[in-house]
Known about the structure:
Structural class: alpha/beta
Largest sheet: 6 strands, parallel
Strand order of the largest sheet: 5-4-1-6-7-8
Number of helices: 10
Order of helices and strands: EEHHHHHEHEHEHEHEEH
Protein name: HAD family hydrolase
Radius of gyration: 18 Å
CATH topology of the largest domain: Rossmann fold
Low-confidence stretches: none
Distance between the termini: 28 Å
CATH architecture of the largest domain: 3-Layer(aba) Sandwich
Pfam families: HAD_2 (PF13419)
Keywords: Hydrolase
CATH class of the largest domain: Alpha Beta
Organism: Mediterraneibacter hominis
Number of domains: 2
Shape: globular
GO molecular function: hydrolase activity
CATH superfamily of the largest domain: HAD superfamily/HAD-like
Strand content: 15-25%
Amino acid sequence: MQNRTVYVDFDGTIVDVFPRYFKIIQEYMLNNFNLRLPYGIFVNRKRTGKKEHEIIRELCQRDIDIEDYVMFKRERLENKEYLKEDRIIDNPKLAYEKLKKEGYHVKLLSQRRNAENLRWEIGYLNIKNCFDSITVVEPTSNNAKLEYLKNIVNKDDIIIGDSPLDMECAEELNIKGYFVESGLYNSDVFSCEIRKAADYNAVVSKYIVIKEKKF
């Protein structure tokens, strides 16, 4: 019997990326305006889906050169020194073990520009043993994960992630999608009801292992 596959996101699902994002935006604000942003307020605004230039305008009453900021951020976002800011969320190894008992193949499916640095980060964080396989897709103007999955996914596969793009994959491919509230978005960004839990371990326990039929 072919294994069912769980496609697990990385940023916001396996690791907390807010320290990395905040370090970048704080550095930009200090370099250009000698201003500091409050971390907690930045996180709250970001999780509602606001763009970072909008957050800067709201908090600092400043308009920035958006292209300049995008380039500044892109040069740093997947740089190893900034990736060191990421923190593991809860216990992905425990979630992996639970999924294996249920007969799932656990595939990390991440959208990154620098696949080599993602693999480095996984080694740096010592979480290689949390996945059976790793696939990295490069961001595109469309949903790169959906393009990757549409020709290989099976009806019993599932996807776990922290973004609307992950849930779009589930909807378009007619598979189950589970949203974690540990990432860059909160569930208020959705206009419809979704399967959600606090984090990866909670999703595994709440929906997959104990097989709840309602959400």
